Amino acid sequence: MATVEDILMSKGPDIIVADPSTTVHEATVLMCEANVGAVVIKEQNEARGIFTERDLLRRVVVPGRNPDQIELREVMTSPVRSVSLGADVRECREIFTREHLRHLAVVEEGALLGMISLRDVLAVEVAEDEQLLQDR
Amino acid sequence: MATVEDILMSKGPDIIVADPSTTVHEATVLMCEANVGAVVIKEQNEARGIFTERDLLRRVVVPGRNPDQIELREVMTSPVRSVSLGADVRECREIFTREHLRHLAVVEEGALLGMISLRDVLAVEVAEDEQLLQDR
């Protein structure tokens, strides 16, 4: 079964990073350009939190706050839920479902190596289906 | 293999609906309360479009528009990508991956029966894994 390491190898290091003092609006521009739903907040080389489209909805737009005047440190989700490189697709799937998450940080010995999303797990399964069909 | 109908039966009719004239801010409150990432825009009993967290990011927050002054008709994605009740989990997974979507409308003979999300497909797979483990 594919592991988190396999997923990172195939999709490449497409992690989007920001500082705690980045404004929400600046972060949304980064997310939009990269076509991703989350940005990781780093400070002193450690992942301090994550800011997602869901956080934007709940903590900024619904309360009617101005995205230009809020820093990520105020609205990020912290700490970030993480997995190790060796975790397999089934474990990730369970975490996404049970904890109602869409993104997981990949961390080894304190170092942030990447992010995997619910969509990445699905893409692995699609690739496995195709391989099965070819092998028939 | 589980079908779209099986998914709808197990999760129930949890579809969130709004009018084209609903403001973005009103829609985000509905999405927040229901803990979902999308709302379907209905007019004359037909699904006209869908408004998702991604649309909020790209079409409202990034361009700096005021969520209280925009109606969903201006920023929804239309038409809605749909599947039929008989589609199976593998087909949905392929559509989500290939078309980079997170939600699909379930439509039979023009009638909107529900929505399924990328997360719903993952939840089916987790349930199948658990069943496999129990059967061993």
Overview of the structural elements:
The structure is a homodimer of 136-residue chains. Chain A is an alpha/beta fold. Chain A has a single domain (4-135), classed as CBS-domain (Roll). The first copy, chain A, has helices at 4-11, 24-34, 53-61, 72-75, 89-98, 118-135, and strands at residues 17-18, 38-43, 46-52, 82-83, 103-108, 111-117. In chain A, the strands form two sheets. In chain A, strands 1-2-3 form a three-stranded mixed sheet. The first copy, chain A, is elongated and about 55 Å long. The two termini of chain A are 19 Å apart. The model of chain A has no long low-confidence stretch (mean pLDDT 91). The interface between A and B is medium-sized, with 35 and 35 residues.
Summarize the structure in short.
The structure is a homodimer of 136-residue chains. Chain A is an alpha/beta fold. Chain A has helices at residues 4-11, 24-34, 53-61, 72-75, 89-98, 118-135; strands spanning 17-18, 38-43, 46-52, 82-83, 103-108, 111-117.
Q: What key phrases describe this protein's structure?
A:
three-stranded mixed β-sheet; alpha/beta; 136 residues; elongated; 22% strand; homodimer; CBS-domain; 6 helices
| Number of beta-strand segments of chain A | 6
Helix content of chain A: 40-55%
Instruction: Please indicate the percent range of residues of chain A in DSSP E strands (runs of 2 or more).
Output: 15-25%
Determine the CATH topology of chain A: CBS-domain
In terms of quaternary structure, what is this?
Answer: homodimer
- CATH homologous group name of chain A: CBS-domain
Question: Main sheet of chain A: which strands, in order across?
Answer: 1-2-3
Task: Using the 3D structure, state the CATH architecture of chain A.
Answer: Roll
For the termini of chain A, the CA-CA separation is: 19 Å
Order of helices and strands of chain A, N to C? HEHEEHHEHEEH
How many discrete domains of chain A?
A: 1
- Biggest sheet details of chain A: 3 strands, mixed
Q: So what's the CATH class of chain A?
A: Alpha Beta
Mean pLDDT level of chain A: 91
Please identify the structural class of chain A as seen in this structure: alpha/beta
For the largest interface, the chains and their residue counts are: A-B, 35 and 35 residues
